[in-house]
Amino acid sequence: DRSKADWIHLDVMDGVFVPNLTFGPPVITRMRPLTRLPFDVHLMMEYPDRLIDAFAHAWETQRDSALLLIGGNQREGLFDRLCAYVQTLPCADRIALVLSLDNPLPFVKRCSGLILSSFYEGFGLVLTEADVLGLPVVSADIVGPRGFMQRYGGCLVPSTEEGVRRLLSGGIPPLGVDYDEYDRQAEAEFAALLTE
After folding, report:
1. Model pTM greater than 0.85?
2. Fewest CB within 10 angstroms: 62, 65, 110, 166, which?
3. Contact 65, 37 (CB under 8 A)
4. What is the CA 154 to chain-centroid distance, rounded?
């Protein structure tokens, strides 16, 4: 915090898009207590089109659904290629791609649910943000969010089209986590680490 920096930029790889040659979520978790500066995290993902394909398939039977995909990258023109690909689909007018937003939560709040479709993720803070907004959430069954989702009865699915189908089929309630209790438990776990 003694530097003149406004934030710290972190690159996190999924191990598929690019090899995990840098640090990942465990290192970032350990870095968090060392500074009050905000972290600007750049997630690099190989297959964002798989979520689009899954949505297009689900849209065939649920024409009133829409997909808002927030986040992307310009590596080798990927975002532009995704935009062009979406335009070839019959459901193109039901898909919105947004490269980045300073604060996506006002948009997320208007959604009917959230899908965390990743091959690798740290904690998956977006799951708690969506839950606080009262949205049902579905997560790929991956290491980072698995414990949280299991602890609170969340919906875990293989990292396939199933997640899109499960969310669109309805019947998935919000997690409804008591975040005051969650914070108390997290603080106790953190304090226990300091006394070991």
Report:
1. no
2. 110
3. no
4. 14
